[in-house]
Amino acid sequence: MRRNKQEHEIDIKSWLFKFRSNWYWFALSAVIALAAGYVYVKSSPRVFEFKSTLLLGDQQTGSKKAQELLEVLDVQSRGIKVEDEIGLLSSAEMIKQALRKLDFTVAYYRVTDHWLNNISDLVVEEEYKSAPYEVELDTSSIQLVDIPITVRLLDKNTYELEIEAQNAPRYDFRTNAVIGSIPQLSFKKTLKFGEPYKDENLSLTLERSDVENLPPATKYYFVINSLESLVKQQQGSLGIAPIDREARVLVLGSKGSIPDKQVAFLNTLMAEYVANDLKDKNENGMKTLEFIDSQLGTLSDSLRQSKNALSSFRSNNRIANINVQSNLNYEKLSQLEAERARLNTDKTYYENILDQIRNGNGIAQSVSPTVGGIQSPILNNLFLQLAELNQKKAGYRTTATEENPMLRKIEGEIANTRGAIEANLQNLVESANISITNVSERINKIEATLASLPENERRLMDLQSQSEFIDKKYDFLLEKRAEASIALATNATDKKIVDKASMVGTAPVNVKPKMIYLLALIIGLAIPAGVIVLLSNVDNTIQGKNDLSNLTNIPFLGVVAHGSKSDKLAVLNNQRSAIAESFRSIRINLQYLMANQDFKVIGLTSSISGEGKTFCSVNLSSEIAMSGKRVVLIESDMRKPTFSKYFPVAESVGLSSYLTQGLPLGEVVQKTPLENLDIIPCGPIPNNALHLLEVPRMQQLIAELKEHYDYIVIDTPPIGYVSEYFVLMRHMDVNLYVVKHKYTNKDMLAEINELYNAKRIKNIYMIMNDLNYNKTYEYGYKKNAKYYYA
User: What are phi and psi of 218, to 5 degrees?
Assistant: First the structure.
């Protein structure tokens, strides 16, 4: 089938006509869409957006100025990871900590006095500190959570409590855990305000509030929220992001319907986050002080004992001075003893930290404990790396499960780092043992030298050395304790609230009536338009003259207007009708085409049955006869004769009897009520109509009829079913191909197009039957010609 390029072009006028002719569907759809938009606008809770900003510090512990002044930590700070801090800030534990400081457990709602609520509870508003009652919970008892509990105010002193729920959770606020559920719950009870109510599932007291000028409401209800549901609500609406890729200023965003609640939540969350940071830093400082205090307690007794021993020895032995040589030896011995003691202290300190590392105690989760005296940069960096990995792990745990590959990787890195720290501490202990052994050997040599000194002098020097060593060690620890105390006293968090929470704009972010109504209108108009386009594209029937011009090159002769199916002889019965005018136009077009030629035989066919081929044959013959021409109409469709529906015919004789029995022409031609119009019905139905039409007598019939009539019109069978048309085609001077508006399938024109393109058929023209002027824009102007038609 040949199709022109124009078939794929968009005909704007055609689509506008289709849309206009179905205007009522657009109106109905628009009304429904606008109504749905109205319900959405009224029933949707208003959600507002809130923002605040928080500054992250760049130091691990302590006050920055104190560290610069005292140099308590001799390591380079690596700063913080913004992603990890975001994870901690949005973690469930941090949100729980903030929610415990707020009174969000009970949420209050009001079903407004709106006509939509007569259908269902569609228009519901949440209240915060503005409800006509207040719920006081007994958190030591079991409560029903996450279900609506209806409150109907009966008067100023009484109310009705009602619960209708399925699978209602029972919640223990002491452990923050669900301990079961009730499959089906139906509860209604009348109580007084201020009167406690308690059963196995509920324990509360409703107090009448002092709120005045309350808006009208049909009913109220409240929901007791579990801590987990509150965390999910806040986590779902919370968004945290840095203001810039490299920035340490975080923007906290949240959405909610109650401004006071969301502002309080964001401010409390930031305050708890900052307080936790300072708390962690103070705890690290306290651990350092506790370690130094424990060492000072041990040295205090040793110092006192050494002083007493030295004093007693001097008093008992009356020794005041020691010679210079002895003093030099003993001074050197004292220095070595001090060095050995320092090494022993370091060793003890290393072993203490190593024990904590192996047992997984607090120091493994904190920063490098350099205040105690570790001077190894490698070990200090390993402690910093361990702290950073632990912080990163905490951030991932807020969103990841234990099976997460990244979490497993971090845990492996933590284990490796702990192993490296343990190995370094073990090396330091071994190094201390070697140094202690070396110093001890040197001490033994000096002691051997001093052995020759007088016993009293040697004993005195021993006591002096011991006392001086303990005294120096005690002074050293006192100095370090003072430094640690100053660092703890000046401890401050580097995290700071920059902007407290506030609402962004004044309009809700989810409900914008003008935009919603516009969108609803667009959707309301798009749905019927889409359906019309879909149905038009699915409909493969011929819709108008443009379809024919796109599907075939066969010339177009005219259209037959739509009319009543009961009016078979429309041309004869109502000569002022649109159908009569249609056939009149076709007759004139035929006469114009046949003006210079001696055309006699006109054949009409179609693709399939039901397209109005016989109707067009009868009415076109009638119109030509009414113009004064003598016309004979032949019914050649001997498989399905239909002339009896149009004329009173004798079915005993006709075309079949003429061709088979040799009857004279006068016996098969029958008169009609219309002057100048005769018909030849098919007669008795033969066994083989195709062979019958091929006999030479058919050619004789056409030739004889040409002598008596001006026009011969042959009503042929449809070419889509049988082959008789191809036999009769050689007798015809003009071929009229009938298609029916919105009935004939476009693919049915393939066969006639092949005949035309192969030039096997001559003088063929298209007629479109049953065209409703009101349903096509091509002839839409004719619907206004009713004054010209009767």
Answer: -85, -30
